Amino acid sequence: MAQGGRRPQPGDLIEIDRLIYEHWAIYVGDGYVIHVTDDGGASSVFGSSSSVGAGKAKVKKELLEKVVGNHKWRVNNKYDRSRTPRPVREIIRRAEQWIGKEVSYNVFSKNCEHFVTELRYGEAVCEQVEGAAFDGVAAVAVGVLGAVAAVAAKAFLRR
């Protein structure tokens, strides 16, 4: 069952490689995970451009193998290095309280990784978004520096 060399334990974060993003779930035992999905939500989280920024999603408890499908997955408690996980019983209790509920979804501030990290650590964290934001800021900075250099070169050549 395990990929990435480790069998999941209750409370573990499960990272699932999708085509252009990683989907996250929390393992709750007996082969099941709890995760945020657009299946059954009021609006499609991933299907329309308007819902990429904001929409609704549903929290489901499903078999890990069903959620994973043909994709690769791994246990990835990467934030354990910088944050203290809640006790496993509390993680599971909190996760189970969300099953069947519709939740707000925003790819930048309330996505599947935010959901599971809030359950495990009490803090919503998402490196995918932070990395994308950093990449965007870096691209803007490079563009601005390039424009400033072009203006400076043009002024210099006019003299």
* Main β sheet profile: 6 strands, antiparallel
Structural class: alpha+beta
CATH topology title of the largest domain: endopeptidase fold (from Nostoc punctiforme)
Q: Provide the β-strand percentage band.
A: 15-25%
Could you give the count of β-strands? 6
Rounded mean pLDDT score: 80
H/E element string?
A: EEEHEHEHEHH
Specify the overall morphology. Answer: globular
Can you name the CATH architecture of the largest domain? Alpha-Beta Complex
Rg to the nearest angstrom? 20 Å
**Strand adjacency order, main sheet:** 5-1-2-3-4-6
Describe the overall structure.
- The protein has 159 residues and is α+β, with helices and mostly antiparallel strands.
- It has two domains: 113 residues, Alpha-Beta Complex (endopeptidase fold (from Nostoc punctiforme)); 34 residues.
- Helices cover 40% and strands 22% of the residues.
- Strands 5-1-2-3-4-6 form a six-stranded antiparallel β-sheet.
- Strand 2 and strand 3 form a beta hairpin.
- It is globular and about 30 Å long.
- It starts with 12 loop residues before the first strand and ends with a helix.
- About 23% of the residues have low confidence.
